[in-house]
Amino acid sequence: MGTSATSIKHIPVIIVGGGQAGLSVSHYLQEHKIEHIVFERKSLMHSWKSQRWDSFTLVTPNWQCDLPGHPYDGDDPLGFMKRDEIVDYLQRFADKVKPPVREGVTVDRISVNADGVYDVATSVGNYQCDHVVIASGGYQAPIIPRMAEKLPETLFQMHSVQYKNPEQLPDGVVLVVGSGQSGAQIAEDLHLAGRKVILATGNAPRVARQYRGKDVVEWLHEMGYYDVSVEQHPLREGVRDNTNHYVTGRDGGREIDLRRFAKEGMELYGLMTGFDGENLIFKKNLAANLDNADNTYRNINSRIDTWIEEQGIETPTVEPYQPVWQPAFERDKLDLAEAGIGSVIWCIGYRPDFGWLDAPVFNGMGHPVHKRGVSSQAGLYFIGLPWLHTWGSGRFSGVARDAEFLVRCIKEKVRVNSDCEESVEIVS
């Protein structure tokens, strides 16, 4: 028996996702008295509450936390909030926003009908709306490669999203695959706990924590880097594919130097590419990976040096970084049994999962094509994605600006010739 049209509730705006991005949009919609609802599959701020390890901290200073109407309100602006402090900060934000939210609701499908209205099928019934804001984030489906299926069933495996602490893992050596932010920080967490770690590195860059008297983030803020848009960036949309620099806010903040870890007993390898039934297979590119990460480190410092000189700022000089360890040779094979590996943590990122959204706005990699969150499909918007507009778009520092812009677009109903309506080329 079909659902009658009268049983389908129409709401002007539906927001999918109850994280900081979705609630930021709700904040501005409420300011303009625009009716809306937020659908959240789990609970508000679920990923922060359940998908971060115990020692997790922000990697940007607390002063950069600037959600709409809710700047950082603690007593350590130069510090780095720990996981529980982040959750408390976000809960206070949610308490301020008081969003019209339905928690525990799965959005099964969104499509646009012949009248240009969005049909939204959910686990609690069907809705219609004129505008949809997708705020479900850019980190949706954890990536675990097919080679994981070839590893022995007795080997404990997990993705970084599942990692909490070293006590989760069985005895034995831990293989961490991937050296981006999560991989480098989890490897450090295990290393500091006294666990033997083998780290399969990738092409992630690194950055200094403190340089010439300030946190590097503070220097880059003064230099205007965080206001550079995708369109202004030399890589254009390609910047969205960049791997985040590894650094940590742990213990008050410090840089991560994989070479130092190696000097202290961590085993480093190049990119892991396979398993032959007995041996793990690696590329012999460890030295190149370490050198490339250090080159980025030096380049950022060099840009800061130039800025300091141009502005005539008086600040202490710093001796250039010198590598504390070099690989004497590189191995392309490692016997899994002989190495004593008892567990593997996959830290190789996520892939998009928008299979429930029926709209011609995705490229061949499954990523939404947009300009500043505005897609080519009228009434369909995205927020909370890395480099949606600027570096801060996927962080606490830039989401307010993105949310305010999208709500202005919604308020104007994407008028012809307005700033919000832009030509978006769909790349298949």
TrEMBL record:
Name assigned to this protein: MSMEG_0569 family flavin-dependent oxidoreductase
Coiled-coil regions listed: 283-310
Sorted UniProt keywords: Coiled coil, Oxidoreductase
Stored Pfam families: Pyr_redox_3 (PF13738)
PANTHER family per UniProt: FLAVIN-BINDING MONOOXYGENASE-LIKE PROTEIN (AFU_ORTHOLOGUE AFUA_4G09220) (PTHR43539), FLAVIN-CONTAINING MONOOXYGENASE (PTHR43539:SF78)
